[in-house]
Every structure is written in C-alpha cells, then in structure tokens.
Amino acid sequence: MTDGPSTPLLDKVAGPADIRGLSDRDLTRLADELRAETIWAVSQTGGHLGAGLGVVELTVALHAVFNTPRDKLIWDVSHQCYPHKILTGRRDRMKTIRQKDGLSGFTKRTESAYDPFGAAHSSTSISAALGFAMGRELGAEDVGDAIAVIGDGALSGGMAYEAMNHAGHLKKRLIVILNDNEMSIAPPVGAMSSYLSRLYAGAPFQEFKAAAKGAVGFLPPPFQEGARRAKEMLKGMAVGGTLFEELGFSYVGPIDGHDMESLLQILRTVKVRATGPILIHAITQKGKGFAEHRPDRGHATAKFDVATGEQKKAPSNAPSYTRVFAESLMQEAAEDDRIVAITAAMPDGTGLNLFAERFPARCFDVGIAEQHGVTFCAGLAASGMRPFAAIYSTFLQRGYDQVVHDVALQNLPVRFAIDRAGLVGADGATHAGSFDVAYLSNLPNMVVMAASDEAELRHMVATAAAHDSGPIAFRFPRGEGVGCEMPERGTPLEIGKGRIVHEGDQVAILSFGARMVEIEQAREKLLARGITPTVADARFSKPLDRDMILDLAARHDALITIEEGAVGGFGSHVAQLLSDEGVFDSGLRFRSMVLPDDFIEQAGPRDMYTRAGLNAEDIEAKVLSVLGVEILGKRA
C-alpha cells in the first residue's frame, strides 16, 4: 500500500492553530483521520505504534484546548508522540522517522518548538514540567501552562513520585495527565498498577463523565455550595480520596481517554479553573484501532501491511545476542536454583520472558525502577542468591549510584547482563550503550567483560554464574550474532585473561567487544598489502590481561585498541597500564579507537559506526596511519 488514507480535515492542518477553530464534532473526525494517518505512516517506516494510537484523541484535545507551543506539552518517554508530530508541522517528514537525517522517534528540542523537552527514558516528564511551571512563576518569558503526559507504566519509576511530592509542596499550577493504558512495553507490575486498576474498577465511564461534571473544585462559584453533597458521594470513586490528593494534587477521573466530549470538557474546565497542581486520570487503550489485540499492543513494529498487519521483517541469519544470553542463562539456572533473573520493565527486550516461562518463581520484573532493581539484586546477592540484572546499557545509567554504593562498595556478586552495548540504530543517541565500559571499569571490585561474538557471550554467562567473589558485568550488542559455531554449553573463562586470535608482526590490534568482525575484514585488506597484524580479543577491561598486553607491546612497533564505547573506557585503562609500566618510554606507537565525543543521531548501525570511525575501512586506515604507510596506500 503506497497511498495514504483519505484525510480531508487533517490535510487542512499545518499546525495546532488550525485545529483550534474546529467544532467538537470536527475534532472527533480529525482524531479518526489522525489515527488512520498514524497507522499508515508507521506501516511505511516501522517504529513505535501502539502508544501513539492510544493517545490520538488526547493529542487532538490538548492541542485544541491549550496554546502550544507557549503552553509546554511534555510527553513522558514519548513513544506516543507520533500523532503529536503529525499535528505539529512534521507530517510530510514522517516517512523519515527513526532514519538517518530524519525525524527522531522521540520528542526532541532541536526538532520543533512543539517539543519543549526531549525524552526517551521514563518518568521524567513531571519533573521537567514542574521546572517550566516554576520558570513561569519566576518570570520566564513565553511560558504558559506546563502539561505532563505520563503513562501508568512510568509511574513505577520513583522519580515521578519525587516530582509529585515536590509539586504538591510548591502548590503552583501544574497539569499532569495520567495516560493509563495498563501497558508500558510489557504489562505494568507492582502495587501502583493494582491501585490504579481499583480506582476505575467500580463504575462505568458514563458515571465518570457525570462525576467529572460534578467536580466541586471546578464548578463556577455560585454552584459550589450546592454540590458539596455530590462531592462526598463521589469521594473515593471518581474525584478525590486518592493517593494523588495526599501528594497535594487535585484529582479528576478516571475518564474515558477516547471520549472527545469528556476530554474537551474537562481540559477546558481545568484550563479556566485550576490554581495548583492537578492530575487528570485518563483511561486509554494502547494500540486502539489497529493493534489492541496484540500482546504488546503494537508497541514497536517493523514495516507492515495495513490490510493484514503482516510485518515485513528480513530473515534472520544467526541467533540474536539477546536470545543467546537468555538461553545460556536458562542452561545455568537449570543446574543452579540460586540463579535468579531481574529486569526493569523489559522482559521481552532482554530475553527474560523466556526465562520467566521456565522459571517463573525466579524471575522478577521490578518495573521502570532501575535504582530499586540494582539494590534488590544486591540484597539477593547478600542473601546467598546469584542474581543476574538484565538491563540495557543506557538504562543501567539510571541505577549508577546503586551500582557503586550498594554493589561494588560491598563487593556483592551481582551479575550485570548489559544488552544494547554500543550504537543501536533507529532509537539513536538516547538508547546508545556508550558509557558503561567507562563507568563500570573504574569501580573497585568490578569485573567487566565484553563478548566479541555469540559463542563468547555464552562463555561469559557461564563465567558470571560461577563468579562469587564480587560483582561482574558482561556487555553485548543489539541484533544478530555473527553466525559462528556455538558451544553446547558455556565454559567459565579465567578472570582477566584474553586470547590471541591471529599472530602477526609490526602492529597489534587489541579488541574489546563486538568490533571483531570489522577487524577481521580490515585484516584481510591489510594482508593484501603485505601487512600482517596480530589480532587479540581482550575479553576483559577490568581486570586487564597485563601479561598479554605487555607482551603485545613488547613484540610490536604499534598497538591499537578498539572498543564500542566512549573515551575513558578500555583504551584508557590500557594506556594507563602502559604508562605505569614505562612502555611509552621505549617508543611504542599507541592509538585508541573509541566512540567520538558526541551524541550520534539515529541511522542504520553501519552508518552510525561509519560516523564513529569504527568500521573495517577505518581500522585499516588507522593501521596504515600508525605504520606511516597511508600515503603509499593512496598512491596504490
């Protein structure tokens, strides 16, 4: 399907100002067209679909009632921002979303004035909106209302409560909309999810609409006195009597987040009447109109056929690193009932959904709560269990103090399985695993490994399972493995020992992580030039294989380290070792290839690594340069 849906109303919308003169009936029609357009746009590119489909009516209503961009509309995480982007002047660029030089898959300040605050990680919106609200109170120019839209899944993150607690104390006008769809990426977990469910379990939506109309705090003053009894009757059902009121928020809801009439009425009333912080609780359906029956409600999808829903995925040539990790961990857990697995709201993304099916009593989803998850693992380790914390590199950043204070300082054997190491493609800079090597390798007691292929990953899972003397981490990239021969079972590696892959002379290439395929390709080109580099797989950045590294330095004129991480990581530790041992005094030529000091925007992984200068041609050029033969190479 190449032609989009018929959207006569949407075609007249160049920006939110164009929808503010529409009738309520036309706003409902516009929402229908916007949903169809969103489905079609994502079918052409792939991307995050379900969250956006759940907030179509809310998006239209917010832009119709509030004066964006002066009023600051902040989407938590912002997976749900595609309809917002279509309405805010970016419809013609939706075909570029999550692609090189295209639109971001998240809100982004540099992309549009309608994106006042960037997002991609969870539970940040209320803090940011409160910052805008206080800026307004302190005289910031061109700042009106501050509106945060946050999902129920994001409410499992403690930062949201820190922000609400502060907002309740400050008592300034702030609007928070709880987009409650009972789904973040996976179904939400915890007592808060159960609490929200109880809030709307007792009455149908038509009663909620009537309750909202009777909300005392938002009635014109002459009617407030006569409505006191109504408030008491409603208390605890639809308005009032909630945890949010205890935090200092006025509470309205739950309301049907797909009922345009209710949304418009309540938002208009709140806009006119609200004085302090207010929370509007809207019930929505993730994936509404297309993917509501899929297990993940269409959270993320490849390109697909709109008529059938069939996704257009390229065939897999090798198992994914994530699957190899999960299967390897299950092998270890089958023989050791002390092994437990922990995820922070990403069971499918980390492969732990497979572990949970087999060992449900030993798998824990802590919600979007990395800080708690890390310390929970520390407690498990202190009790004698063997916890594996399976957390993306970019999300482990959120629990760093706990890694330092609760794990490393106490030398507790928590195993960190760090997925999405390095550059990750379409999700871009917000999800890149750039910093974990640096922020873990500088910690006393920590062991840090990186897999060069899927077979090495299997061995590293076994190594971590057997390691009881302190914390240990292993990192691996997103996507398919290299297709290497797989061992049936992992074998624990000797801690701090690397391996020589190819012997050579003149120059040694010391790799840490998954650039080995590119190194092999570069080596083939160098062999054709008569240059035979030694290639080594460090395996460990902490502790370093001192003997191997010093031997490589002694036997070669030049040493090049390569890693998929920021400066300050593996290469820096190697340089420190060589400096401490006086190796540079004898004239060793040393180079370190790392990610650049920049946030690399989304593109295909190969394009991103081209920008980073870490592909085979870059490695070949670095070897030629350090040997002083690059000019000869150009003449050839």
What would you say this structure looks like, in words?
- The protein is of the alpha/beta class.
- The protein has 26 helices and 19 strands.
- Strands 9-8-10-11-13-12-17 form a seven-stranded mixed sheet, with helices on both faces. The chain has a five-stranded parallel sheet with strand order 2-3-4-6-5, with helices on both faces. It has a five-stranded mixed sheet with strand order 14-16-15-18-19, sandwiched between helices.
- Helix 5 runs parallel beside helix 6 (158-170) and helix 13 (321-335) packs parallel to helix 20.
- The longest helix is centred in the first third of the chain and has 22 residues, at 24-45.
- The chain is globular and about 80 Å long.
- Mean pLDDT is 89; it is low at 200-216, 222-241 and 631-636.
Could you list some keywords that capture this structure?
single chain; 636 residues; alpha/beta; seven-stranded mixed β-sheet; five-stranded parallel β-sheet; 26 helices; 14% strand; globular; disordered C terminus
Spans of 5+ residues with little confidence (pLDDT < 50)?
200-216, 222-241, 631-636
Envelope shape: globular
Computed CA radius of gyration, to the nearest angstrom: 27 Å
Approximate strand percentage: 5-15%
Average pLDDT number: 89
Please provide the count of β strands. 19
Structural class category: alpha/beta
Q: Given the structure, what is the number of helices?
A: 26
Major sheet: arrangement of strands: 9-8-10-11-13-12-17
- Distance between the terminal alpha carbons, to the nearest Å? 49 Å
Percentage of helical residues? 25-40%
Q: How would you characterize the largest beta sheet?
A: 7 strands, mixed
